[in-house]
Structures
1.
Amino acid sequence: MELLARILHISPQTFWMIAKVIIVFAGPLTLAAILTWVERRGSAMIQDRIGPNRALLFGRWRLLGLPQLAADGIKFFMKEDLVAEEANNTLFWLAPLMAFVPAMMGFAVIPFGRDFTEAGRTYSLSLLDPGNGMGMLYPMAIGAVAVYGILTASWSSNNKWSILGGMRASAQMVSYEIGMSLAVIAIFMTTGGYDPHQIVAAQAKTWNVFPHIFGFLVFFTCMFAETNRLPFDFAEGESEIVAGFHTEYGSMKFALLQLSEYVHMVTAAALIVTLYFGGWQIPGMAHPPVLLSIGAFVVKWVFFCWVFIWIRWTIPRFRFDQLMFLGWKVMLPLSMGNLLVHAYFMHRWG
Amino acid sequence: MRSYVPVLLLILVAIALPVVIWGISRIVRPHIPSASKYSTYECGIKTTLEAREKFSVRYYLVAVMFLVFDVETVFLMPWAIQMKELAIFGLIEMGIFLFLLLFGYGYIWSKGALTWE
């Protein structure tokens, strides 16, 4: 690292910061792009069909349908760009940015590996160093901003389907946010802090998922609602509101909206891993080597990304009133009860 | 302050990527305008009425209730972290606070604001 920094004539800290920005930006983005492929091949696997396999690389290699990704990308570039006359032009262009930027920012605090020391300096494997004062509040705040992207997209389209989809999406994300924050507060309480590094370190002995099983259930469910994934994908619905909030969107703008949805999913999986499944911790290993700890995090992370897809093709879609019922009358009391029980136990024996 | 610089960098990169992509796509994509292409999509028929019209009041109710409960969680956060220091005093204080809120929760439940039909 020192050597690389010297070649580039910058200090090791600056080099490390830039390297982390690249990792934190490119990592989730790449995984999100791969997930679009996994989603199609995985759904095909679950439904016992073949899935996309027609796109060939140089007219020869099939590669399990992976060239489909490239083909889709090229197609997005080549599509004519349409902004409906009735739409609000500025907001219409701004909405994909407003969805994409917060989606990309969420990953910044998540520790994806163990800290390591080189030449007397400690390097931490998360974009924001521990003790930055924002901790786990940051991804929650950023996640909440995602609503604006969807609302802006739906409002600026000036299309009935879009507005219906956007309203539904915002009502749903807002309803599940409370249960989510309450579940996370219970973790803050048992950890005694909200720094993700602290949270991961506190899970060295037992993962949070065991004492916080109800909190985990709430958080896990809320993550599906927050990312607008099935079984809660009410922002869109082919049979009722066409494509929902992105009905009017096409070409690269649509690609960005779609991509930000997947990046949200990736970030949600990383949050689940950090909060409940020990982050980079490996059970039975107190101080794993750095590379192994990164590997452990990635394995858990990819697994939860897969769970998102797996559940999509396993559980049927809810109805909107059922969603609201679940959010306000089940998730909220459950997470509140979880918090109070933990508070009691903490006070009594903690 | 210095520790937040990476986030700023990340935001700049996240803004730059779509802008670059749009720039490239602007060069390669075709542009063949026609009137029907730019009309609002409404299942192929002519658009009737405004899209931005009156909306079900339930959505606003949800927004207001969200505001109340979200502020509640904000108040819970410092207590949760300082739990050990505040000990029994904090527990009772929070108990009263939560009781008032849960009372309100029960009230809106009984009024049917949480039922969606």
2.
Amino acid sequence: MSNHGAIPILRLGPTLLVSIQVELRDAVAEAFQADVLTAIEKRGTTGLVVDISGLDMVDTYVARILAETGRMAKLMGTATVLVGMRPEVAATLVRMGYAMEGIRTALDLDDGLALLGHVVPRR
Amino acid sequence: MVNVSATHCLRIDREDDIVAVRRRVRDVVELRKFDSFAAAAIITAASELARNTLVHGGNGTATIDEVFDGSRAGVRIFFEDAGPGIPDIPRVLAGGYTTKRSMGLGLAGSRRLVDEFELLSTVGQGTKVTVTKWKRL
């Protein structure tokens, strides 16, 4: 799959699975968004799961990139679920006043896929 | 009385330097065995403030001090830039000042993550921000 960025995009049925394990710098972030949107178009995806269990820090910059990606996917008809947020990250984002409203979340990958199963009927 | 046991000075000239500041702060709080919530708070605040220094100041420095107040270890970080400065500090600290790069969120947000926060800014001269996070006893 498209992979000029550093973040691999996996397909699982009608769902795309992205696990972010690297620091999201400007260049990586833009490539990530472009890759995800291109993959959605190519694969006719209806769901996107973004796993951030590998991130021990999410500042407002990274949070904005993630929220933006979800909104971009939504414009293309794809529902996004953010999964795997660590307790420290959740606490920090809320304390900063950046609770990522409008972004659907689930505890882990399993729950995220189950949630999409409710939102998007499997083909 | 606060003693400084080590000081790390880092330049902030480009985006990679934000990562470097974050990593150095992470190294310090891991060495001092901060709990994971306090560690995430100060690492995130450092990331926000380093990005502000770069985006709004153009460039600047981060000085990371390992401090001790007699009973607690802590980390104190001083950010300085010679950028345009902040015209309306109360508004920025209230978080209501959202430029497209969202300086308000960064400053107001990082203030809520630390134990001590000081902001000095003069229009046309630059901005200095000092934050301190103490290890929980």
3.
Amino acid sequence: MKKFKIILAAFGMICMSQSVSAQKNTFSLDLNYNYSMPLGGFKSDIISNNSPRGFMVGLMYSISDNLSVGLGFGFQDYYQKYPRALYPLGKSQEVSAVLTNSVQTTPILLQAKYYPLSATYLKPYISLGAGANIIAFNQYLGEFGSSATNVEFRAQGGLGLMIPFKKYSSSGINVGAIYDYSPYNKNGYHDLNNVNFQAGVIINLK
Amino acid sequence: MKRHLIMLLGLACMSFIYTGCTKEPLNNLSDEESRIYITDHDSSVNFTNYKTFSISDSVAVIDNGQMTKHLDGVDSAYISAVTKYMEQYGYTLVSNEQNPDVGVDVNRIISTSTGVISYGDYWGSYDSYWDPYYWGYPGYGYYVPYAYSVYQIKEGAISVDMLDLKNALQDKKINVIWTGLIRGSGIFYPTVADSQVKALFDLSPYLKTN
């Protein structure tokens, strides 16, 4: 929660500091394919497989040449099937099963992108985001499953590069990497932290 | 125009990822992977104290709480497989009249509905499925020192139970000292019975008599 407040405060300070020098008031649509790699407890306890099944969409409002803010949402599907193993169910009870973990995350985030070199052709940026993460966790022993859906906090920070389609264009190709801080304190698990690699387009909506 | 095309293409790709590219766990399981094997036992029992066993001559088919005795190719295959692995674990097959130390029965638990059946219900009616008279102890009740958790059953399961007949007179009840449960796809075929029962016994090395 403390981290959430810090991120929100940083987000607000960036917005306030830039709004006085706002030069462009345009909307853009960010469409990105997302490749996600689990980290930490997510990787060691739930799913270690990388996920190539994801995307992130953002509707951003440019309040200056350097800063845009907006709302983003996404989807990522994680899956892993573990070989048959023994699992204790009770004091004297055991089950032999193939364990499958399936996790789908749908983040809905307030986002900000800061472009420190707005005058250059290539536009590197720093991104921040914070908001809610809708998590569907399905666990199967053989074909017998249990599922739980929870809403948790999520924050992210990343670096990226916008490559305009042509000089002075505010539409272009986007590539970036994002670290997601994603707590998940259920059933003895602690986090769904991950790092993401994105590629897509930024389309200026004018 | 170009901008709109790129946007549409991007949104279409994302819709495809959302609807078509998620890995559906159940679609990625073979029959063998779909199965689970659960065993439980009375941890206070020393199985080396038991040497002989008798096995039921048919299978109790428990369909939504209603029991019928049944014997077809599948049932015979399971009874034969249980007999085989009991003998491999050192038990000697005897008839009911020869006062076996252990009674073994095989059950098919089937739900034809999508409702919930708890195994607590299964144990609660155990004496109606297997009348203690069958084991030579008319009027006795069963004592079950443990219970499965509650499961949702939408198809069938096979359970194998070991009953303590050796101490029934002394205890004035028939203790269920071991139980094994097989659940999953494709278990009601004679050809898979041996491997399914083997999986249960592999989970229970403590059953060995020597």
